[in-house]
Write a structure and sequence with these properties.
Elements: H1 2-27, H2 34-48, H3 71-79, H4 82-121, H5 126-140, H6 149-169, H7 177-185, H8 191-210, H9 218-234, H10 243-249, H11 254-257, H12 266-271, H13 279-295, H14 301-316, H15 321-346, H16 350-375, H17 393-401, E1 407-410, H18 412-422, H19 437-447, H20 465-472, E2 475-481, H21 491-498, E3 502-507, E4 511-516, H22 522-528, H23 533-549, H24 554-566, H25 569-582, H26 587-602
Parallel strand pairs: 1-2
Antiparallel strand pairs: 2-4, 3-4
Length: about 600
């Protein structure tokens, strides 16, 4: 009876943990900006029966003047994800948002289940396994975006388990490695992570064999190297071939990723309070060097090399956290279990150890239950898109219902959804794929309201560069978000609000729409014109809410800039001073405060 209770508690423990994890994921509506261009591409592939050779969705990218300077990058992004894009499109077409939300949940839950499975195969204590599975779970909640990378998050621990199976158990899972790699290579460019893992095992296990520190028979060596070599070879059977490898390691493409938040170091984001600390990742990042020092030469060298590489990758780019976490949870979990066993064994406390484990199992069960009750959703699931935050449903409805004319300039984050809803009737200027470097550069000039590239001050009588580009591309319609991924409102948004050439015709919590003041649009403008204050109020409302629920000082800077543009100097000064408290020493904020204080002194009483 006692044994049954001791077994029941860990089972309950993991049931509650996985239920809590699933509950949170199922409660999260479709929110990822990139999801929409992925399923738009999937639709294009299904309907045309071919992979795109050039960007079919952007009118700007297809102009002869905008020849792509990086065709390899364009080819890679257009074709590398084709299988996952088709799958996502079919799932969404058949089951809508609920289908994608369930698929996302299943993929992430399976990745966590693989971590638990491997820890169990290593006979890691249930309590230790629970701690590390919990770390992995809360770390991966940050990666709930509906993108093909979900498959890489799943396949990374799966490849590890396959390689460990032949290394530790001399099992047959290695035979599944080649078909998995060819599948992965057609789903997501992250298959390079799998190739790196395979090569690490080939080199390190080969070194052990040479030094006679590994127990492999001749047959097992042939199976191991035959399967791994084949897996590497077949992984390049994909439409982009070797492009993923070349792009990953060539400095030529580094600038394309510059400025994209997910490629920034997590520590940069944490220190500057641009993103809340990922507790699960932080715990696994801190524990790795500690366990490495304590266990020293007793840790498997293959594990050390693999985890060190992933550790460095994750430290440099937050994108790679999702690949470090499951491997770290398994390896560090195993080593922590050995440390605890040695500690109690050396002190002759085996019975005490069992009692402590039982107590902690009960405490853990209670704590995760409270966590579930506190953060769980028991009101029912929406199974919808995040229409109140990242998906501009109503704004695109407005464009479609009123058949708003003209070329559109859009926030890249909205590009995918505009394409999904309006293509081929209306093509976008750009989207989050950043396929064409020339278009990207000119978009940044426009969105930054750059007046001149070569002159600090605009020569008299000359139009600002951003206006000239809008005329050049014959832009008549502009749809912008209220803030970028860092929380900053664009300079263009504030400029358009005060520009007589443009009229605000739509605004909501997600974004705004401007229409050029041309005679042919007078009826539309007369019907839908809104006061410019709606733009300012929308920015203030969104930024204020983000300040209340987060610690990102950029939203305070956005508030300061907005209030200043409105002439509300007192409010602008307060916003900048609060921002300075969160970013002490920031010279830009200090400069803005000084400017406002000077203007206030010059104002008549």
């Amino acid at each position: 009876m006692k044994k049954k209770i001791n077994l029941l508690i860990p089972i309950l423990l993991f049931c509650v943990l996985f239920s809590a994890f699933a509950n949170i994921l199922l409660s999260t509506n479709l929110w990822d900006y990139d999801f929409w261009w992925h399923i738009s591409t999937g639709r294009y592939i299904v309907e045309t029966g071919s992979l795109p050779d050039k960007d079919p969705f952007s009118f700007a990218s297809n102009l002869d003047e905008n020849k792509n300077l990086y065709p390899r990058w364009e080819n890679f992004v257009l074709k590398q994800y084709w299988l996952s894009q088709v799958l996502f499109y079919l799932v969404y077409s058949w089951a809508g948002p609920p289908g994608m939300i369930i698929l996302r949940t299943v993929l992430l839950l399976t990745a966590i289940a693989i971590v638990l499975w491997q820890l169990k195969r290593w006979n890691v204590n249930f309590l230790v396994a629970f701690v590390y599975v919990f770390f992995a779970s809360i770390a991966l909640l940050e990666f709930s975006g509906e993108r093909p990378v979900l498959f890489t998050i799943l396949f990374t621990p799966l490849v590890f388990v396959m390689l460990e199976d032949i290394k530790c158990r001399k099992g047959n899972l290695i035979f599944l490695l080649p078909p998995l790699m060819v599948l992965w290579a057609n789903i997501h460019g992250g298959f390079i992570i799998g190739n790196i893992m395979i090569m690490v095992y080939m080199v390190m296990e080969g070194l052990k064999i040479v030094l006679k520190k590994a127990d492999y028979s001749g047959k097992q060596i042939r199976i191991f190297y035959g399967a791994t070599v084949l897996a590497l070879a077949v992984s390049f059977i994909n439409p982009a071939g070797w492009d993923a490898l070349i792009i990953s390691f060539s400095p030529k493409y580094a600038h394309i990723r510059k400025g994209i938040q997910e490629y920034a170091s997590p520590f940069f984001l944490y220190i500057n309070k641009l993103q809340p600390v990922n507790i699960g990742y932080a715990a696994l990042a801190l524990l790795f060097p500690v366990v490495l020092i304590i266990r020293n030469k007793k840790i498997d060298l293959t594990h050390v090399v693999l985890l060190t590489g992933l550790f460095v990758m994750a430290a440099k780019s937050s994108r790679f956290i999702a690949f470090y976490v499951p491997i770290a949870a398994m390896v560090i979990g195993k080593e922590s279990n050995i440390l605890l066993q040695d500690l109690f064994r050396n002190r002759g406390m085996e019975k005490t150890h069992k009692k402590i484990v039982n107590v902690f199992n009960g405490v853990a069960l209670l704590s995760i239950t409270i966590y579930f009750l506190g953060y769980g959703n028991f009101k029912g699931f929406d199974f919808d898109v995040a229409r109140k935050s990242t998906v501009p449903v109503r704004a695109v409805d407005f464009i479609e219902e009123n058949r708003l004319p003209g070329n559109i300039l859009n926030t890249p984050a909205f590009g995918g959804y505009i394409t999904w809803r309006l293509y081929p009737w209306k093509k976008t200027f750009t989207d989050n794929r950043w396929l064409n470097s020339q278009v990207t550069t000119e978009y940044k000039w426009i969105i930054g309201a750059v007046e001149s590239v070569y002159n600090k001050e605009l020569p008299e009588g000359k139009q600002p560069l951003w206006k000239r580009l809008l005329y050049h591309y014959n832009i008549h319609l502009i749809m912008l978000g209220l803030a970028d991924s860092y929380g900053s409102a664009s300079y263009l948004l504030l400029e358009l609000t005060e520009d007589r050439e443009w009229t605000l015709i739509y605004s909501d919590y997600a974004g705004v729409i401007f229409l050029r003041n041309s005679p042919e649009y007078k009826d539309i403008i007369k019907k839908f014109e809104q006061p410019k204050e709606n733009v300012y109020n929308a920015i203030i409302a969104r930024s204020s809410q983000m300040v209340l629920y987060g610690n990102n000082p950029i939203y305070l800077i956005t508030l300061g800039r907005t209030f200043y543009k409105m002439g509300r100097l007192e409010n602008a000064l307060k916003a900048y001073k609060y921002a300075l408290k969160r970013m002490p020493g920031n010279e830009f904020i200090k400069g803005q405060i000084k400017t406002i204080e000077t203007e206030r002194q010059e104002q008549p009483n």
